[in-house]
Design a protein that fits this description.
With about 325 residues, the protein is of the alpha/beta class. It has helices spanning about 20-25, 35-45, 70-75, 90-100, 115-120, 125-140, 165-175, 195-205, 225-235, 260-270, 280-290, 300-305, 315-320; strands spanning about 15-20, 50-55, 85-90, 105-110, 145-150, 180-185, 210-215, 235-240. The protein has one domain: Alpha-Beta Barrel (TIM Barrel), CATH 3.20.20.70.
Amino acid sequence: MLLHPHPKLQGMPRIAVHEVAPRDGLQMEPRFVPTEAKVAWLDTLSTLGYAKIEVTSFVSPKAIPALADAEEVMRRIHRAPEVVYTVLVPNARGAERAMAARADEFNLVMSASATHNLANLRMTQAQSFATLREVTTLAQQAGVAVNVSLSCAFGCPMEGDVPAAAVLHWVERFAELGVQAVTLCDTTGMADPGQVLALCGAALACFPGIAFTAHFHDTRGLGGANVFAALQAGITRFDASLGGIGGCPYAPGASGNVATEDVVHLLTCLGHDCGLTVEGLADASRLLRAMLGHDLPSAVGRAGPRWQRHEPPVDLVRTFR
Ligand code: COA
Ligand code: ZN
């Protein structure tokens, strides 16, 4: 049974947690995970209470060999009716593949940093935008939902600061196309809580019609603080990666996303309901560890939640009885 450390707080919005480990996590793993194991693990994830699962990427298999089995994974997973199954799409070719695979949503990607856009997608930002405009039209005609993920929204490892005005500019361009969902991505963990409060606050104030998601990497130990700051700003949707794996292979110094266990633990401590429990995530996390063959960086995954109790040492009990 889950022991709530705090009584449920009234009036708290329900928080949506999106699992990105199958995409953002696996894309960074050096070893190819067999399709069979991925599918079994994804089927476990589908039972846990996520609002959304990012299943895979329809990108060039040369760019991301770890996700070269995207079609087969999409074909073989069992889909829970309440979960949105999203996939990363960088261009029209990716959109065609994602459509054929019956993805619920296209997660279109471009970078708020010109340099990272070139490094990651081999296109200028203008080329990416033109491509994604076509893809958005295609999705709208087909009735497929669209989310736009803006990489490096809180800083670029090559350019440094990315001005908030540049991020808001791209949000506006996509909003003009009718896009209603945008993810602000801290691709290499450069965000700090003050900046998160300011940028997320500005984004929500300027674009009340857009559903914003925050996507943090815990590269510098600020992941939890940034989630907290985003909550304070009014963000109610978060990407997180089981075990804390992840990162962009085309962003120097990238490391893991905020771990889903850590984010759910934080949300639980704050009295937010997100439909997931730390205990519920444990099996999927164990499966992931076995599948990857290495330890996972999640703090709560290693230490357990703060409401877990340990027996006092036996000799202590004997001495003071
Ligand atoms: N799916 C599969 N293959 C694709 C593809 C897609 N969406 N888009 C392009 N390709 C293939 C082309 O068919 C071509 O194959 P070939 O070499 O066998 O002829 C090859 O990729 C190169 O195509 P091109 O259009 O010249 O693309 P590019 O080399 O400029 O690469 C991207 C552009 C966007 C496809 C590539 O950079 C990419 O997939 N990036 C994604 C990176 C990523 O996922 N990063 C992490 C997530 S943020
Ligand atoms: Zn990421």
